[in-house]
Amino acid sequence: MLFNPRGYDPVQFDEPTRRLLRATVDWFETRGKKALIDSYIDRAWYGDFLEFAAKEGLFAEFLTPSGADPDKRWDTARNAELNEILGFYGLGYWYTWQVTVLGLGPVWQSENEAVRARAAKLLTEGHVMAFGLSERTHGADIYSTDMILTPDGEGGFTATGSKYYIGNGNVAGLVSVFGRRSDVEGPEGYVFFAADSRHEAYHLVKNVVNAQMYVSEFRLEEYPVRAEDVLHTGQAAFDAALNTVNVGKFNLCTASVGICEHAMYEAVTHAHNRVLYGRKVTDFPHVRRELTDAYARLVAMKLFSDRAVDYFRTASPEDRRYLLFNPMTKMKVTTEGEKVIDLMWDVIAAKGFEADTYFDKAAKDIRGLPKLEGTVHVNLALILKFMGNYLFAPADYAPVPSRLDAADDAFLFRQGPARGLGAIRFHDWRTAYDAHAHVANVARFREQADGFCALLLAHAPSKEQQADLDFLLEIGQLFALIVYGQLVLEQAELTGLDADLLDQVFDALVRDFSAHATELHGKSSTTEEQAAWALAHVRRPVADAGRAERVWAQVEALSGAYEMQP
């Protein structure tokens, strides 16, 4: 189930993709663990990685849609694979790729052919990109911006203002910058334009983080924005910002998977080969439980993320289900990554602080992913917009297959207006649960899911409760578990996942549902009827000692399965 660089060969992809993915793995493995760790500790800019990527044409091949170059494609399946690999070796390497993805979003959505050609050329030359949206005062609130464009009287503008927390802002060949016109009020005044970090009117202020990656603050002082530099104006600029984040935030889930995979090899190997009080550490029942839980949760993260790829790639104006599964990958998968690291850290304890481990870096970096591209709370509030139609108004759709074909995901750059989320329909979530009703903990979780539907029908949140975000977010957590379980089940069916492992995954989901029900019970605004429902839907997972032993054997097999080259 886990990515392992030893003998890695992604046979699901075409040969050019396989070659580039293998070359990336080989570059990291040849460079070795000491160089990886030393550069992290020294906060050294990863110029050597960018040189490798430029030489191989890695970013150009993976991030140029066929509309900009017929010989290339934007393929979410292989992009997800690269996310996982880069996360496996370090968040900084993933981050420079991630912000290049974001920087390209407004470009590939634009009809400005000159800038599109410029971006394609810059990628071919090995440049990275940046996404100039957030500001120190406003964060990523796209309703507010202090980047002001003043008409220059010749069809262009001069731009003045600052951007903050902008990855790659120190070297980006192209920075997609969001601002507003000084002479137009409201949404019609929004502008997205292309800037160059090498221009004399572009002033790099500082790196705002204490890390290997460069997350810049930059300021434009009367930066000349020619008419041919403008990417979007008015509502289209607003939509381009949201639609770019839709594309970019998806990358967070597979980066989190990669980080957890590398950390798990280290943690299991350490624990399984350590003797305390005359016993192997992994002979202690609580250690087996924690490592098994971490493994099951990591498998679920990977299953959900892989299945969400299929909905991304199948999306169309008539099928926008990806707009639910996308914030789910951002919110749910990344927070599960934190749980996975914490479970393993409880086992390896002080080892998790040692400077010469990957785990030490993973424990720090895993915290960042839930906080990027919108907080967990923002994405959880977004998920709630889909709840009514998802649970109670299923629609008919053709089955979505596994999408590993070498196709260009062109729809991602023509998503259209970023509105109408409440009208999106979904296929019946119960179908996936019905197909696995024979799995004990799937059946038990289904009881909880059906109970949640009954709660909403009989004791729906009142108008006052709907204004109480603290209460509503707990409802969102319960709903998110149902969505999470659905895609896990669909991917388990497509991949023939071991039934014991699937049962163990839902053992965790039953416990999680019970924990959130308990939280709902304790909220001050919860009514007596809702509180009674919450207690009535706390469930114990179905225990099976034989299953637990068989899944433990899968975890135990990770000991010594991979260690990075010195």
TrEMBL record:
What the entry lists under InterPro entries is as follows: Acyl-CoA_Oxase/DH_mid-dom_sf, AcylCo_DH-like_C, AcylCo_DH/oxidase_C, AcylCoA_DH/oxidase_NM_dom_sf
Domain Acyl-CoA dehydrogenase/oxidase C-terminal: from-to ranges = 238-386
Q: Pfam families recorded for this chain?
A: Acyl-CoA_dh_1 (PF00441)
* Source domain of life: Bacteria
Which keywords accompany this UniProt record? Answer: FAD, Flavoprotein
Flavoprotein as UniProt keyword: yes
Q: Would you identify the family this protein belongs to, as annotated?
A: Belongs to the acyl-CoA dehydrogenase family.
Q: What is this protein called?
A: Acyl-CoA dehydrogenase
Supply the source organism for this entry: Kitasatospora terrestris
Phylogenetic classification of the source organism? Bacteria, Bacillati, Actinomycetota, Actinomycetes, Kitasatosporales
